[in-house]
Design brief:
The longest helix is centred in the middle third of the chain and has 29 residues. The chain is of the alpha/beta class and 683 residues long. It has three domains: 321 residues, TIM Barrel; 212 residues, 3-Layer(aba) Sandwich (Rossmann fold); 57 residues, Golgi alpha-mannosidase II (Immunoglobulin-like, Sandwich). Helix 5 packs parallel to helix 8, helix 8 runs antiparallel to helix 12 and helix 13 crosses helix 16. It starts with 14 loop residues before the first strand and ends with a strand. Helix 10 links the parallel strand 8 and strand 9. Strands 10, 11, 12, 13, 14, 15, 16, 17, 18, 19 and 20 form an eleven-stranded mixed sheet that branches. Strands 5-4-3-2-1-9-8-7-6 form a nine-stranded parallel sheet. A four-stranded antiparallel sheet has the order 21-22-26-24, covered by helices on one side. 29% of the residues lie in helices and 19% in strands. The protein binds beta-D-galactopyranose. The site of beta-D-galactopyranose has 9 residues, from loops.
Length: 683
């Protein structure tokens, strides 16, 4: 691992660039186009491009016959123009000759059907043949370009994802299970296979699709992650060996449910992700808040700056409807990534392809081919701004609050068949109910999984912590005893790491820290509501009556010290606790027993912010739709003011030390942001 930051030492600036596919434009058919690209890149302030992502068929047009000539030329051109290369390994798409000659490298679907060649991201990650082919081409790339002045970073494959059900994968899964359980006896118990006569007498009987065995579903997903990480380790072996100083990354997909990205943390030198918010398809605030949540997740993976590897400068082409980004929003959305810890703003794609699936996907350079477009001008203006923000490179985001959003917990929740099999909404609960109120108050947040260190935080929120892995409850308890505040909710503490229910009462091992027993869970049809009535003299200042939906735990308080802060208002459980707090050691643990309306979430979180005096990025008032984020480089504070509305906004500053980070000019008493406008101030 390369443990320095920033990892791309040859560029002491924020990175600006994107996916570049010159191989689609052969100089024979499109003379001068590559030179045009260089000219336009300089105009746009591009300092890095990702090359070669899907170019295996150009690099190895026939088996064992390599053609690096075009890539030599491109890397030379980039170096001549002072642009760095984020050189890709091409495993994201395999050439036709390979798929035809080695059918075993093509993926098999869950129902046993082998894919035809086509599309991309369709290889078997277990296949020794594919692994050998990947190793060979990666070795060639590293040997050839290890001393090339353009080589700055490795872009491994592209958006790893999906799964393969071929016999090799089945065998690998069984071997993985043997390692995890050692005996079939252990596995049969962990998977509760006596149910419906699913007991295994031999490892070979384990088939991959049996959705009725939830332990199997979970372990299969864990295996897919581990096998993908193993494939990546295999991919990068020659790169680490031949280019030990070049950082490695692979582009992730936010909350993509197929892979547990925490497992990639130790393989990547730097984390990056591809962000495609659905701007103008729902309220801008909701889109901005969700995007902020995912940026924070990516920063939290290493608790370090990350890279925005892909984003569209205008539209995407894969939504049902993909509106253009309104003027100004490109800059604000890009600065939002930087505000949350990105040291790069990069695009898919540099130039729109002429044909095939992505010809209408947004790009910096449109089919018209010149710079006189609205999108190009906005990109170039942003490039010019980013050049003035060197002080942000490597700067941190000081945080006191964490939300636990845990992939395995999400998988288990998704698989369980319980009282409510629709709208379980785990990600939405974490982001909308708990992150959003913090975001609206400009409180910075890390998004972690349940295995992470809790000591850096004062507040930890663990919504719907259905699964509690070994050791987690104890760590949460220690966190509280040492003065931390824990908030968890309904449908927590039900199962262990194998999806086996805890037997001594829910919320299982969380009972001591929460001081409650959840005896039953009522679930409400979508058109029914329960009511939550705050107790008089509520410590968080809750006064209104709130609506509860979907989930209502019926809980008992255990222990005299636990305080009931709200009760249910209706039905046979009216008067029973709906919100409790357990003072424990120097801290406290809240249990929110029902899924409450947004007003409750807003009021509850606002009360906590006040009670804990959580540090906000901006303590002054802000008009609706403006987000304020903060980064600090040890010497300077950077404040980002981002207007996600289509109306102008004014913010009272009253901080004489603030200066515009781009112009160096003193900020006045009021900051005026145009519609979708943004500003970076420094002090
Ligand atoms: C990404 C992918 C890119 C491009 C882009 C379009 O998921 O990595 O290659 O397809 O989507 O939005």
């Amino acid at each position: 691992m390369i443990d320095r930051f920033p990892p791309v030492t040859r560029i002491p600036h924020l990175l600006h660039g994107g996916d570049y596919n010159p191989e689609q434009w052969s100089p024979r058919k499109y003379p001068d186009l590559w030179d045009q690209d260089m000219r336009l890149m300089k105009l746009a302030g591009v300092n890095i491009v990702s090359v070669g992502i899907f170019s295996w068929a150009q690099l190895e047009p026939l088996e064992g016959r390599f053609d690096f000539g075009w890539l030599d030329r491109i890397l030379d051109l980039l170096a001549e123009h002072g642009i760095a290369a984020n050189l890709a390994t091409p495993s994201g798409a395999k050439p036709n000759w390979m798929a035809a000659k080695y059918p075993q490298i093509r993926r098999v679907t869950a129902d046993g059907h082998r894919d035809l060649q086509g599309g991309r991201h369709n290889h078997c990650y277990t296949s020794p043949v594919y692994r050998a082919k990947v190793k060979k081409i990666n070795t060639r790339l590293a040997q050839r370009y290890k001393d090339h002045p353009a080589l700055a970073m490795w872009h491994i494959s592209n958006e790893y994802g999906g799964e393969c059900h071929c016999d090799l994968c089945k065998e690998a899964f069984r071997a993985w299970l043997r390692k995890r359980y050692r005996t079939l006896e252990e596995l049969n118990h962990a998977w509760w296979t006596t149910f419906w006569s699913h007991r295994y007498q031999d490892w070979s009987q384990i088939e991959l699709i049996d959705r009725s065995v939830h332990g199997l579903v979970l372990d299969w997903k864990r295996f897919v992650t581990d096998q993908t990480v193993d494939f990546m380790r295999h991919e990068i072996e020659p790169l680490r060996r031949l280019t030990p100083g070049i950082p490695i990354t692979t582009n992730m997909m936010g909350t993509y449910p197929g892979l547990n990205y925490w497992k990639f943390r130790d393989v990547c030198d730097v984390v990056c992700w591809d962000s495609y918010p659905g701007w103008h398809t729902e309220s801008e605030m909701k889109t901005a808040s969700w995007t902020a949540f995912v940026h924070d997740l990516n920063r939290s993976l290493k608790r370090r700056p990350f890279l925005l590897m892909e984003s569209t400068p205008s539209q995407v082409n894969w939504q049902q409807v993909s509106p253009l980004k309104r003027p100004g929003l490109h800059r604000t959305a890009s600065l939002q990534a930087v505000a949350h810890g990105a040291d790069a703003v990069m695009y898919f794609q540099w130039r729109k392809s002429r044909g095939s699936a992505e010809k209408f996907h947004g790009a910096v350079v449109d089919h018209v081919g010149h710079e006189h477009t609205r999108v190009f001008q906005e990109v170039a203006a942003l490039g010019a701004d980013l050049k003035k923000l060197d002080g942000l490179v490597g700067a941190s985001n000081p945080v006191e609050t964490a939300i636990i959003y845990d992939w395995e917990n999400g998988w288990a929740l998704e698989a369980e068949q319980g009282p409510r099999n629709t709208n379980k909404d785990y990600a939405r609960t974490c982001s909308r109910d708990f992150y959003d109120p913090l975001w609206k108050h400009h409180v910075p947040v890390d998004i972690i999984d349940m295995d992470q260190e809790l000591a850096p935080y004062r507040l930890v929120i663990a919504p719907m912590l259905y699964m509690v892995r070994p050791g987690v409850a104890q760590r949460l308890q220690t966190f509280v005893e040492r003065g931390g505040t824990l908030v968890t909710t309904y449908f927590s503490g039900l199962v262990n790491e194998s999806d086996l229910c805890f037997l001594d009462g829910f919320p299982g091992p969380l009972k001591p820290v929460l001081g409650i027993w959840a005896e039953e869970t009522d679930v409400l049809p979508d058109d029914r509501e329960q009511m939550v009535v705050p107790a008089a003299g509520h410590p968080l200042g809750l006064k209104a009556r709130y609506a509860a939906r979907h989930y209502c735990d019926l809980i008992h308080v255990k222990g005299d010290q636990v305080r009931v802060l709200a009760t249910y208002g209706r039905d046979f459980y009216a008067g029973r606790p709906a919100l409790t707090v357990n003072p424990l050691g120097c801290g406290q643990a809240y249990y929110i027993a029902s899924r409450n309306d947004q007003r409750f979430c807003d009021d509850f979180m606002a009360g906590l912010i006040r009670q804990l005096k959580l540090r906000r990025n901006w303590a002054g008032t802000t008009p609706p739709g403006v987000s304020v984020q903060r980064r600090n480089n040890g010497k300077q504070d950077f404040l980002f003011f981002l207007n996600f509305t289509d109306a102008p906004r004014t913010i009272r500053l009253n901080r004489p030390t603030l200066r515009d980070a781009l112009t160096g000019k003193k900020a006045g008493a009021a900051l005026k942001l145009p519609p979708y406008g943004s500003a970076v101030l420094a002090s």
